[in-house]
Amino acid sequence: MTTTSGPLAGTRVVELAGLGPGPFAAMLLADLGADVVRVDRTVPGGLVLGTGPRLDVVNRGKRSLAVDLKDPGARDLVLDLVAGSDVLIEGFRPGVAERLGVGPADCAARNPKLVYARMTGWGQEGPLAPVAGHDIDYLALTGALWATGRADEAPTAPLNLLGDYAGGSMFLVMGVLAALLEAERSGLGQVVDAAMVDGASVLTTMFTALSQMGVWDLGRRGSNPLDSGAPWYDVYPCADDRWVAVGALEPQFYAELVRLTGFREGEPDRFQQVPPEQWPALKAQWAALWRTRPRDEWAALLGGTDACVQPVLDWQEREEHPHLVARQTYVELDGITQPAPAPRLSRTPLGVDRPPPLPGEHTREVARELGLPDEALEKLLASGALSVSS
After folding, report:
1. Whether the model pTM is above 0.90
2. Span 233-326: which CATH code?
3. Quick one: 12-203+330-387 is in which CATH superfamily?
4. 232-264 burial string, b = 16+ CB within 10 Å, else e?
5. Is 323 a catalytic residue?
6. Three-state DSSP state, 246
7. Can 334 be counted among the known catalytic residues?
8. Which of 4, 132, 217, 239 is the most exposed place for a label (fewest CB within 10 A)?
9. Which of 134, 240, 323, 374 is catalytic?
10. Which residue is catalytic, options 40, 164, 227, 234?
11. Where do the CATH 3.30.1540.10 domains begin and end in the chain?
């Protein structure tokens, strides 16, 4: 699993080390072929994972330069790196990068074509801009959290896929790629302000539209077609207390589900005639049927059909599912199984060319690439302004 042929080969990204969506966005760019140099701290700060950096596959494909940005010599080295780069990603609170001397104006002075990508929860301005927050907080303000969960229960705190990664990382990467395209035409970079609260809000667009069309009740959680309200779109326990996911949303798929399971066999398909107030009773009938067989029997019967039913797999089982095996959705690099890069490209395939680095593992390499004399490099190392992994 080694390649440098991704579509961003030849593009350099500077990542000012942080946690969550910023590093994940940088990983996606590395998967696309970019040379990502992660600027780590010389002394770890914030949340420190005890399992070791080699296992943190979010940093796969990157190199690590460890610096003390408060040291003028180290900061100058980072600005030298910026001068020959295409993108910088930072996830500090507003104003921190400026105080460190690596804000947008500092970097633009060295490289006017640089795309400066800022990843925050609340954005660069607004009353909450300086306030701490996490995924669940951004979802709370956009209505996405309120709408997630079952009827008559509290909203369900989802994995931080929705705010951090879908609303944050993906929008940041989209902004970076768009700004890179524009910079090729204009010769000028720009600042990408990717706020998770903004991205999470955009993700709710379809439900806003559906509510205005009268087919989604924003005031009733767990009572709509896609939020566990409908009998044909939910998760059901089976005879062995494992689950199946049922997504037979369209009438033709529900008809196939009814036919294959024998549900109320002999009765006409009433998909179009069941009003929402009757959904709970119909769900109870389906729940009783799913309890008659273990999960894998249902999967064998329905998994390869248009009934839109699949087994709910745990994190170990997923790696063995025949479809994911056939697509090589999970791969192994240096003994660590992990999700393979996506999407697939026909001419410039994605891949990973190195495992996650130790902090400072490439300090000497990157410094020498930038032309820093060995004497100056050793002086910075001796002072603690730079560090190398031990």
Report:
1. yes
2. 3.30.1540.10
3. Crotonobetainyl-coa:carnitine coa-transferase; domain 1 (3.40.50.10540)
4. bbbebebeeebbbebbbeeeebbbbbbeebebe
5. no
6. strand
7. no
8. 132
9. 134
10. 164
11. 233-326
